[in-house]
């Protein structure tokens, strides 16, 4: 689940980095050079981490990185909410002014906390890389189905 969210969010942000830069600037936390650099690198990090989670490659590391990103995103949302900003989080691309910021912020924070919990789950119980799962499945398909087959 986290992998799909990360790949989707990163892809949507990467499709229009100039709009994503404006979303970052709306938080009033960094200047344009840093916002532009973040807008070009964060989506790539999200996509790479999401693909690792989806394939099971370095799943503990990918889950930990995703959890850190989600914690930073959540802190930025809490900061915007506390300062009375009325902006969309920009989590899935370019943010727009929020219609009901209080509700939107609460939903965004709950979603991020749930995703962080899922990351914690993967850090404790990592997913096997997909190629190992396929190899095990292939071994099971080639294994004898009965004691008689094993003896033949």
Explained architecture:
It is built from 7 helices and no strands. With 152 residues, the chain is mainly α. The protein is globular. The chain has one domain. Helix 2 (17-25) packs across helix 3 (32-55) and helix 4 (59-82) packs antiparallel against helix 5 (101-124). The longest helix has 24 residues, at 32-55. The protein starts with a helix and ends with a helix.
Ordered list of secondary-structure elements with their pairings:
Layout: H1 2-15, H2 17-25, H3 32-55, H4 59-82, H5 101-124, H6 130-142, H7 147-151
Helix pairs in contact: 1-3, 2-3, 3-4, 4-5
How would you characterize the largest beta sheet?
none
**Gyration radius, in Å:** 20 Å
Secondary-structure class:
mainly alpha
| Residues in helices, as a percent range | over 70%
- Terminal Cα separation, in Å? 44 Å
Overall geometric form: globular
Strand coverage percent: under 5%
Order of helices and strands: HHHHHHH
Domains, number: 1
Instruction: Provide the residue-averaged pLDDT.
Output: 85
Summed up, the helix count is 7
How many β-strand runs? 0
Q: Point out poorly predicted stretches.
A: 146-152
Write out key terms for the chains shown.
globular, disordered C terminus, 7 helices, single chain, mainly alpha, 152 residues
Structure, briefly:
This protein has 152 residues and is an all-alpha fold. The chain has seven helices and no strands.
């Amino acid at each position: 689940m986290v992998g799909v969210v990360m790949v989707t969010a990163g892809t949507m942000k990467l499709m229009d980095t100039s709009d994503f830069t404006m979303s970052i600037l709306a938080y009033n936390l960094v200047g344009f050079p840093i916002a532009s650099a973040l807008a070009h690198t964060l989506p790539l990090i999200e996509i790479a981490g999401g693909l690792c989670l989806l394939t099971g490659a370095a799943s503990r590391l990918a889950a930990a990185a995703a959890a850190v990103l989600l914690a930073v995103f959540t802190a930025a949302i809490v900061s915007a909410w506390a300062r009375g900003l009325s902006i969309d989080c920009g989590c899935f691309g370019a943010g727009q002014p929020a219609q009901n910021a209080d509700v939107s912020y609460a939903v965004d924070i709950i979603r991020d906390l749930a995703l962080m919990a899922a990351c914690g789950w993967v850090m404790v119980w990592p997913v096997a890389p997909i190629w190992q799962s396929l190899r095990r499945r292939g071994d099971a398909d080639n294994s004898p189905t009965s004691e008689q087959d094993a003896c033949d």
